[in-house]
Amino acid sequence: MKAFLTGAAVAALGAGLTFVGLVTFDQSTAERYQDGSVILLDHATSWDTD
How far is CA 45 from CA 25, 41, 50, in A? Predict the structure, then answer.
């Protein structure tokens, strides 16, 4: 039971850190739209390397 609680705590912590990371994501590397989607801008894409 202790192992289960430890695993659950670690999973919750990871989820929390992921959420915080996404919420505070650097705006200079992404473009956010009104619907909440995010487009990463830190790598070349097929349509801008013609």
Answer: 20, 9, 10
| pLDDT for the residue numbered 41 | 61
What are the C-alpha distances in Å from 18 to residues 1, 21, 29, 37? 26, 5, 17, 16
pLDDT given for residue 20 in this prediction: 77
Q: Measured between alpha carbons, how far is 9 from 27 in angstroms, rounded to an integer? A: 30
Domain spans of the chain?
Answer: 2-48
List the one residue out of 20, 18, 21 whose CA is nearest residue 10. 18
Name the residue among 45, 13, 42 with its Cα closest to residue 27.
42
Mean pLDDT of 20-41: 62
